Amino acid sequence: MFCCEHELHSIPDNPVFVILFLQMTNDALKRVELLAPGGDFLSVKAAILAGADAVFLGLGEFNARKRAVNITLKELQEICGIAGQRDVRIYLTLNILAVEREFQDLVALLNNAVEAGIDAVILQDYGLLHTIRRMHPSLEIHASTQMTTHNRGQLELLAKAGVSQVNLSRELSLGEIESISAEAHRLGLKVEVFIHGAYCVSFSGQCYMSGNLYENSANRGACVQPCRREYTRETRRIRPLNLKDNSVFSHAADLIAAGADSFKIEGRIKGYEYVFNTTSAWRDQLNRLASTDMPLLSDSRLEGVFNRSFSDNLIRGRLGTDSFTAESNDSSLKLMDSVVSYSADRKELSLQDGNSVKEGGQITIKTVDGDFICTGFLEKALSASVFRLRIDHVLKGRIQRGQQIWAQPLAAGGFQLAQSIENLTWHKEKLPLNYSLSGSSGTPLVLTASSGRKKASVSSEEPLAMAETRPTAPDAVRKQLSRLGDSPFFFNECDLSDLEEGLFIPVKLLNQMRRSVVALLDPGDSRHNAAVLPIIKSQMDPCSSGLALLLDDPALLADIPAGVNIKTLFHLPADPDVLNKVESLFMRHACLIPWFSSILIGEQFEAACQFLDRHPFVEIVTDNSGIAWYASERGIPWVAGPLLNGSNGYGLEFFQQHGAAGAFLSSELSEKQVSFTTVPEGMQIWSVLISPVLLMKTRHCIVRNCTFCGKEVMDSTCIPCCDKSVEIKDSQGNSILVVKKPGDYNALYRRNPVLNLHAQDGRPPGITLLDLRNPASQILEEIQLKELIELALQVLSPPDNLTELSGVELLLKKIPSLSRRIAGGLE
User: At what angle do helices 507-521 and 474-481 cross, to 10 degrees?
Assistant: First the structure.
C-alpha cells in the first residue's frame, strides 16, 4: 500500500444491518466492477495500481472533460497493454454532443482507439451510438450519465440500440436504483452508479447554463462550473447551486444489494494522488464485502484528497439544505505555512517554514481573511524555504507577505507511490490462452477461448461426424490450436472433456476456427480496422411547414384565435396528480398535442404511459427518450424534443429508426452547424422562433436556497404544489429566474425570452414553434396572442426578405423584453 496511514471506522453493531448484510451472497458481492477515472497517463496507472477493475479516460478533445490533460494515442496503446496484463478494462469516453462535420475525425479517432485495445466506449450522443453500433458491432457501448437515464422506457430504448451498460442519473435514491436495476437486468443491461466525487446540481445532460451564459457548453466538456459561483439575491451574496461532493462509502453493501454492477468514481480533472487514494479506499471496502467482513463507515483516504465536504443525501432520498455548502474551497486543505516574499520575475516563493510543504506539491494561496489568490505548483526547491512557483490559472490578487499557504498534509509513502507509477510499464509479453472444445456426432463443433476476463466462442457451420477409419487424436487437436504465431497469446491448455471421442475433425476446420476465435480476442484484429462512416439517405423534398404554439397555462388556450392554421401543444406536468388535473384539457381540445417532460422518474413515467394509453393521439412531442420508446411500441408518431439533444443527422436517423416523425435540433447548434446537418428522408425538422432560455433542470430545490420557505428538506408536497420563483444575478449582471412550476422540478432560465433568428436562417423548412411556457409567457403582457401569431406568420412568409425583416423588427419593437439569441454553437 502506497498511501498514508489511514483511520478506519467500522459500522456500528446494528443487529438488523448485520442480518441484512449476511443474507447477501458472495457471488453478488464479487461481481461489482470498480471503475476509476484517468484524466492523464499518471492517473490511469495510479488507478491500476490501486486496484481498479476498469478505468475510463478521454482521448483528445472529444469528451466531457476538456479541462483534463487527457490521453494521447501513443499513451493509450501502452495503457491498454498494461491494463491487459493486469486484467483491467479500459473505457474510452466520447460523452459529448457531436456536430456532423466532426464525424470523420471521430471515426478516425475511434478506429485508432479500438485498434489500441479499448474494451468499451462511453457515449452521450444518439448519433454516435447509432453510428458506432454499425461500424463496430462487437465493441461494447456504455451509456453516459449525460443520457439522463432514470426510467424503464429509457432502458428499453438503450437495450434495443445495443448498449450493454448504463450509468444512471445521479439523482436517484437507493429505492429508485433498486427498481431500475431490476428492469435493467431483465433486459441484460449492467447498471453503473457514481459512488464518489463531484455532483452536478443539474440533471446531467440537461445543463445549458455554461453554454447559454458563458458560451462554453457543458455538453462539449467545456463547462466553466457556474454552479460553484456566488450570486446576488437582492443585496445578499449566496451560493445557491454549490453542492457538496458525493460519498456513499457507508452504503456500499446497500448499493450492491440494490443491483448495482459497477461503482464509478468521479475525477478525471484530479491528480494521480486523488485517483490512487479514492480507488484504493474503495478497493479495500469491496474486498471486505467480498470476504464477508463488515463494511467500513468511513476512510480517511477519502477525506485527505480534494473534496468540498461530503453528502449522501441523494441516495437517501433526502433533498435538503445540508446537501449544499457555502464554500467552494477544498476541504482537504490545511493551513501549512505563510508567505515571506514573492518575486514575479524569478517566480520564486519564499516561505516562513518550508518544511511543511514538498517539492512538486500543489498549494493554494489565500489572504488571512480567506480570499483566494491562486493555486500553483512548487516546481523546484531552491533552498529549504524557497521554491520556484508555477501559478495555475489566473492570479486573483498580488502574492504578498503574510498570506497563507494551504495544502494537503504530506502523505507518507507519497514518493514511493510516484516511483511505483513510474515503474509500471508495458512489458510486451504474450498472454496465456485457454481453450475448451465441445461437440458430438451430428452437432456443430464449438471452440471457446479465454484469456483473463476476455472470452469468445465460434462454432462450425457443418455438424461433426464419426471417423470412418482414423479419428482425430487429442494431441493433433492441441497441436493445431497451439499455432498462435505472432498473435499476443501463447497456448496454455485445452479442455477436451466435452468433446465426444472417435470424431473426425478436419485440420482445415481447426485452423479456421482458431484464427476466428483469436481474432475476436485480439483488439488489434482487422475486424476493427478501416471502419467507414455510413452515409445518411437525405431528404430531397422538405416536409410540410407550419407554425406551432406551446403552452403550459390552460387559461391561454381560450386566447388562440379561431380559424388560424396552427398546431397547439401543451406541456404536461411530471407529477401524476397534477397530470390528472390537466387531462380534461385533452377531452375538450381534441387536436391538442401533448409535450412530455424530460424528467419522468418512477411513478411519473408510469403515469405518463397510462396517459398515452387513454388517448388516441396521432402525434406527440417528448423530451424523454423513455416516452419515445413507449410511443414507438404503440405505433404513435413522436417528435424528439430539444432536450433530447439531437445535434447531427446520425442522431436524427436514430430517432427516425425508432419511430420519430420529426425532431428539434439542439438549441446549442449555431446557424452554420444547423446548415451542415443532414436531414434524413421523411424527417420533419422543428425549430423554435420565440422561447424561454433554459439553463438547467434540477431535482434539488434552488428556490428555497435563495429565499427560505421554512423547509429544511423537500417533502411530498413540494413537487405537486409549489409555485414559487425568485430572481438572482451573477457577477456579470445576468439576471436568472429560478422557477418552480406545480407538478415539475426546479428550473433556471435567463430572465428574458429570446428571438431565435439563426434557427430560421440555417434550417430546412419545417414546423416553427412559439414556446410560451413560463417564463416566456410574460411577453403576453406586452402583446396579445393573436397579434403575436400574426407577426410570427409574417416572419415565416417567403420569399420577400423585406417582409421578413419587417416582421422581425416589429416583434422586437412590440416586445421590448425580447432579446435576440446570440448564435453560439457547440465549439
Answer: 40
